[in-house]
Amino acid sequence: MGSTPVKRKSVLGRIRDSIDRIAAGTPARFGIYIFAGLIVLFTGLLSLPISTASGEVPPLADAVFTAVSVICVTGLSTVDMATYWSGFGHSVILLGVQIGGIGVLTVASILGLVISRKLGLRQRLLAASDANPLRIRKGVTEAQAVRLGETGSLLLTVAVSALVIEVAVALLLLPRILIEGVPLLDALYQSFYFSVMAFTNTGFLPTSEGIEPYASDIWFLGLIMVGVFLGAIGFPVIYALLRNHKEPRRWSLHVKLTLVTTLLLFVLGGFAFYLLELDNRDTFGALDPGQQILQALFLSMMTRSGGFATIDIAELNGSSLLVADMLMFIGGGSASTAGGIKVTTLAVLFLAAFAEARGNDEMESFERRVPSDVLRLGVSVVLWGATTVAAASIIILQISKAPLDHVLFDVISAFATSGLSTGLTAALPDSGQYVLAATMFMGRIGTVTLAAALAASQRRQLFRHAEERPIVG
């Protein structure tokens, strides 16, 4: 009897199987591969002559930096974004910030859901990991912000909420832009551009004037703040609010900590900027009290990852720059379009400090106990984030010889994907731009995801050493 011939797989089939093995074995590293691949793709698209308004091939450093800033939804730029790129280039940029803002793994899962009409376990795990970095490290548990069984609904929420919020903000911005005398088609484009850049927390501008014509308009600035806030609180929080908006008691601890910490930082940041800039006539010290409050609150929201600015950041007092550094480093909510170490990380660190001060063995908040491994993860995030910022700052200082406060501000803005700048970024040589691009990449993919990806596998320890307490403090 003859043996049945083995059917060899095609090249595409073997590639697909290889991708499946990588995605199943190391989802964190797979996510980094996707981000890196997209950066290479968008660098190629932006390097095309049709991407620039002049029709010339842009310098490689500008194309790479812009691609990283777009995919990482940072908002920093080395060129005038409004005039340097053509219509095709701006289309590429809008597509890139949407992909980067929603999250590459989430987009991949949504595409898989559309194609298969049903999420398999692997796609659920990938999407769940994107929504909660803890799952990369500790596996899937039921006590998280979004349960694994709800991932399919979360993905639909991501897609629908992003579209609805961006369209709603754009429609509300449109009348104000029309009042400014902008033609209808241009106004439609600008309103959608502003809306997308606000929700994705990017901060790119559609025109050379940018936000200047609306710098004192409470309606326009208020809508930009709303868009930034909704993008920065995170999709798990939006999902929870949509499901249980009338029952706050059913909100998870993650939702409560995110909302409370975000609002607290917004108010405290605005109060700090108001006090520190009262005597600075180069920013908003010369404005009337109402405008001073509006500008202080707007700056507080934008430093959290928004990227828009109504003032020259370089004119801020040194004390205000330091406050902005802290707010940018903290950033927004987990699984959001914002960057930074995330507000829940800060909340957990403070819960640990309060527990230690009161002599409690456990961290507790809103009648819930926070496990110790969350604290270890939070400390790791802060440590790796601070190390990245310190290393990048030292290198940029050596390259640029610029003042420390300006270097630190732009480096933290890059790491936290904030997008605000003192003007240093555009003045850096190519080597400095590459360093900032790497900092943006590190900040966007997440320090926890990077650490998990670098570890090929988790080591299981089968023994415990004797305990000994070092002196701390």
TrEMBL record:
Sequence intervals crossing the membrane: 30-51, 63-85, 92-115, 154-175, 187-206, 218-242, 254-276, 326-354, 374-395, 434-456
Keyword Transmembrane helix: yes
Keywords assigned: Cell membrane, Ion transport, Membrane, Transmembrane, Transmembrane helix, Transport
Record-level Gene Ontology MF annotations: monoatomic cation transmembrane transporter activity
A biological-process GO annotation: metal ion transport
Highest taxon of the lineage: Bacteria
Subcellular location, principal: membrane
Subcellular localization: Cell membrane
Annotated Gene Ontology cellular component terms: plasma membrane
Membrane topology category: Multi-pass membrane protein
Coiled coil: none
Database matches in Pfam families: TrkH (PF02386)
Matching InterPro entries: Cat_transpt
Protein name: Trk-type K+ transport system membrane component
Source organism of the structure: Diaminobutyricimonas aerilata
